[in-house]
Amino acid sequence: MPSLFDPITLGAIEAPNRILMAPLTRGRATGDSVPNALMAEYYTQRAGAGLIITEATGISRQGLGWPAAPGIWSEEQVEGWKQATVGVHEAGGRIILQLWHMGRLVHPDYLDGEQPVSASATTAPGHAYAPDGSKKDYAEARALDIGEIPGIIDDYRKAAANAMAAGFDGVQIHSANGYLIDQFLRENTNLRNDEYGGSPDNRTRLLDEVARAVAVEIGADRTAVRLSPNGETQGAFDSDPDTVFGLAAEKLSDIGIAFLELREPGPNGTFGQTEQPKVSPVIREKFDGPLVLNSDYGKAEAQADLDAGKADAIAFGRPFISNPDLVERFRRDIPLQGVAEDKGAWDYAPTWYMPGPKGYTDYPKAEESVAAE
């Protein structure tokens, strides 16, 4: 079986190792959602990953509701992202852009007071972060009219085209974590009675149509998808995930996407916990392409799942925050910094999401740590 350090083909991308950098929202863009030089430095520092999947990036103003998160719908945003793609490529890395529509998780403060949109008229639990960083209750979303759905699909298509114009190697369609596409997939957030609701075939329709539109635009071999099939996430839940997500995997396999990534927490997950069994064994049987797993992995657990044939690669999130040279640290068995038991960053400092380089680009590589001692 392959090791974490063996190369892997992910569609059109030849990755030099199987240690992928998972998407991580970091809140460093401008107030107009424009990526900047600091973000380029951050991603370039982590170019040793087999493949970088960027932080979630808004496909439209309607779909973005996180302070200082980046977008990809304007020319200024495209130009801003070019700094990151050039930096990563010059450092020998590969990078794809994650496409994001938050659906009901966008607070009206981002929308000039208008309601957010979703599969149905539902309200997410908990609180949103307003543009000024304050917490506010989520508002009830309005159900997308069926006539609006082609426009949403076209926003994904345009965002994918913009990503390629910015120099990315591909895109990942964010269909996980209770955001818009996930709101269509799950039974408790999709109460529709038209062709986008009800049966698993209908609830997977939006994902299928978005993935096909993006694949036509930039190539299926440069199109990836992220799902979070098991458990509740931001109020989204399905009692029969094997059926709906198994069908989703079949449809994505038919399209021939580059790879499918799954975020699957367990009962002791550090970001999300669930007793609902993992769906990856079902998806493994139904999806023909490379399967990437994510959630609370350390090096040993990751290699064990590759050895068992459960996955073809592993995506690491929080370990990459404080270890820009994570691949080399794994390769040389150098202890990780800012983590517990090699599983994930535990220094949940405000600097994770605050402007500036602190807690972002100021983590030293292993050689720099030794030199400073």
Structural write-up:
The protein is an alpha/beta fold. The chain has one domain: TIM Barrel, CATH 3.20.20. 31% of the residues lie in helices and 14% in strands. It has helices at residues 37-45, 75-90, 149-165, 180-185, 200-203, 205-218, 241-255, 280-286, 299-307, 318-322, 326-331, 366-372; strands at 8-10, 13-15, 19-21, 52-58, 95-100, 117-118, 127-129, 135-137, 142-143, 171-174, 223-227, 259-263, 291-294, 313-316. The strands form 4 sheets. Strands 3-14-13-12-11-10-5-4 form an 8-stranded parallel beta sheet. A hairpin with a 2-residue loop joins strand 1 and strand 2 (13-15). Helix 1 packs parallel to helix 2. The N and C termini lie far apart (39 Å). The mean pLDDT is 94.
Topology:
Blueprint: E1 8-10, E2 13-15, E3 19-21, H1 37-45, E4 52-58, H2 75-90, E5 95-100, E6 117-118, E7 127-129, E8 135-137, E9 142-143, H3 149-165, E10 171-174, H4 180-185, H5 200-203, H6 205-218, E11 223-227, H7 241-255, E12 259-263, H8 280-286, E13 291-294, H9 299-307, E14 313-316, H10 318-322, H11 326-331, H12 366-372
Parallel strand pairs: 3-14, 4-5, 5-10, 6-9, 10-11, 11-12, 12-13, 13-14
Antiparallel strand pairs: 1-2, 7-8
